[in-house]
Amino acid sequence: MKENIKISGFADEISQDFETQLKTVTELGMHYISLRSADGKNVADYTAAEAEEKLLPRLKAYGVGVSSLGSPIGKIPVNDEEAFAQDCRKLEELCRMCKVFDCRYIRIFSFYIPEAEDPETYHDAVVAKLRRYDEIAQKYGVVLLHENEKGIYGDVGSRCKKIFDALASPHFRAAFDFANFVQCGEDTAACWDLLAPYIEYIHIKDAVTTGKENVLCGTGEGKIAQLLARAIRDEGYEGFLTLEPHLVLFESLSALEVEEAHNVIRKNKARNGAEGYAMQYHALVDILNAI
Question: How far is CA 157 from CA 45, 125, 132, in A?
């Protein structure tokens, strides 16, 4: 595997217990996690001081770094001003937390659009609010990673591109999620063509359009092997590949999915979170070895 390709992952899919997360990833030979929740608490609910006191010593003890903060920033209704103000305060604290972990990336979203309404009518409002997030990130030298989550403004390739073109900021980049595009009926190769100049981070999650179910990476319709080969061989991609298996119903999934959790994971594909995480890790390593 190339040294400039680093495997990370949302380790809270293993367990809520932070110690178990770290033990499992290090046993797999991993040296990074994307910190989304620890000890049952979302990363955005920690203060930087709490993170330094409660999480950093354990990360250091296991020799594990933080590739990104898997925050829920922007996963709010586009017209909820109170939630937006709260998000801005939380983002400031997350930026301070990045310094604690020596981490430069924070994952964010581009707001839920009211059902049955045309997302395009909210373009200006979305961009204005994302610009405010971007201003905060610039102040701290942090890079925001927009994930193409289902049900938000930027859930399809064309609207993602509109966001990146409008902001045109080195502090606002793309986290490319194969499965989410599949579940939105998008062709991942076409989305990659559209967004390649903006992609700075990659989520390793796969899905099928039938039932929108998540599956082991490389076995779905995400074209993961094909697009990773292109990214690494042809485009010189360097950076993180972050495991997000979604193969087992885990504790915090219901808080992450707009749809019912049992729709995206209809049947556990492993005995527990640790096994599902290991399955995804080894499947990715096989893909990378083939590349």
Answer: 30, 19, 22
Task: For 144-166, write each residue's pLDDT tens digit.
Answer: 999 999 999 999 999 999 999 99
Q: How far apart are CA 69 and CA 59, in angstroms?
A: 14
Query: What is the arithmetic mean of pLDDT over 25-52?
Result: 97
Q: What does the pLDDT read at residue 247?
A: 78
Strand order in the sheet with 172-177: 5-9, 239-243, 199-204, 172-177, 143-147, 105-108, 65-69, 32-35
Distance CA 42, CA 64 (A): 19
CA distances from 110 to 107, 115, 151, 194 (A): 11, 15, 9, 18
pLDDT in tens, 227-239: 999 999 999 999 9
Nearest Cα residue to 23 out of 55, 62, 77? 62
What is the β-pairing status of strands 206-207 and 199-204? unpaired
What is the b/e burial string over 231-258, where b = at least 16 CB atoms within 10 angstroms of the residue's CB?
A: bbeeeebebbbbbbbbbbbbebbeebbe
What is the distance between the alpha carbons of residues 179 and 215, in angstroms, rounded to a whole number?
Answer: 9
The CA distances from residue 168 to 21, 22, 147, 161, in Å, are 36, 36, 16, 10
pTM: 0.93
H/E stretch holding 183:
helix 178-183
Counting every residue written for the chain, the total comes to 291
User: What is the C-alpha to C-alpha distance for residues 98 and 102, in angstroms, rounded to an integer?
Assistant: 6
In the block, which residue shows the tokens 């073109």? 165
Q: CA 135: distance to chain centroid?
A: 21
